UniProtKB/TrEMBL annotation, chains A, B:
DNA-binding residues (ranges): 32-51
Lineage: Bacteria, Bacillati, Actinomycetota, Actinomycetes, Micrococcales
PROSITE patterns listed in its UniProt record: HTH_TETR_2 (PS50977)
PANTHER family tied to this protein: HTH-TYPE TRANSCRIPTIONAL REGULATOR BETI, HTH-TYPE TRANSCRIPTIONAL REGULATOR RUTR
Alphabetical UniProt keywords: DNA-binding, Transcription, Transcription regulation
Species of the source: Arthrobacter gyeryongensis
Domain of life: Bacteria
Pfam families, per database record: TetR_C_28, TetR_N
Record's protein name: TetR/AcrR family transcriptional regulator
Amino acid sequence: MMDTMPRKPIARDAVLDAFEALLIEVGERAATLDAVAKRAGVSKGGLLYHFPNKEAMISSLLERMDGLAALDIEAMKAAPEGAAAFFIKSSLWADTPLDRVFVAATRLAEVAHEETRRRFAGIQQQWLDVLAEEVGPEMAKAVRYMGDGLYFNAMLEGGAGDTEAKASARSADVGALLAAVERLRN
Amino acid sequence: MMDTMPRKPIARDAVLDAFEALLIEVGERAATLDAVAKRAGVSKGGLLYHFPNKEAMISSLLERMDGLAALDIEAMKAAPEGAAAFFIKSSLWADTPLDRVFVAATRLAEVAHEETRRRFAGIQQQWLDVLAEEVGPEMAKAVRYMGDGLYFNAMLEGGAGDTEAKASARSADVGALLAAVERLRN
DNA sequence: GTCTATACAGAGATAGAC
DNA sequence: GTCTATCTCTGTATAGAC
């Protein structure tokens, strides 16, 4: 019974993790098959056994994103502090699996990858819907763009540069944003 | 007298315009020397006469960005509707020279280009300073992130996809953001 | 100043051994 | 399932003609 359960091959996940990390740290261009394989500890041929081509690897990453985003939306709906406050807090880069896959996917979206853009749009719309229930459609947009701005800045810094210092600066900013959200709620 | 004035060669600017346009429309990876040369109507060799290598082309683009950003900061300070409202309005994609060079540079920043990131940080700080004078340091951050979010979304769409429809949707969003700014001001 | 031709490296992908 | 070897294409850059 137990061994009939579909089990995810660990090598496959390791490759996907490596791809994600390289996208975050060095950008789309440097996330080559060679680099991903090396980081995952396999050969290029080994990598291409799991993912027949690069596009397949991207698709799997987007699947991962959608799965994690769905969990996030549920948590947002159930958040005791309210959806808006939850949204702002979770827009801060915290190196969570969702944060990571989001920033990684953003690197692909910049590169005119249509499928990635579509997925983003879908998730953003869900966020907006939940926010609108709490603060109304108008203020939901303000909150949404604040969160997007936070993400934009996390993305611009990526894994390079003074992540520690800048991250704590943005962390302080969250306080200001939460105060702003509080004002908008009334 | 007139002909002793340093005059910018037009071919050089045409190359830079082409590079910028390709970054916006098809992303960093597709903005190759071949593609830029073709779009500018010169050969690759001709291009490389003006810019000895690709990095030189990037540097010139960043110079352009800093120059236009400086003008924008001045306009923001002098804006009759206030710096915050001016900032939100001008964060909307309007295909201005500053908008264009900004989105183009963002494509480079995603690719872990350190110099580009530094320039961005400098400009953002200037914006924040001006905003803080008007609405205080806390609310300035809220306004700033809203503007960044607007830019983030413009960038995600780039020149591809339904720019017309989505752009007008974001245009409507600006109304909501201005209302939010008005609330935050009080 | 702008062109063509070419060198050179890196990237994605295939073939086939183990 | 994972490896090495290799093919092909594309991108940056140089050399030198015009």
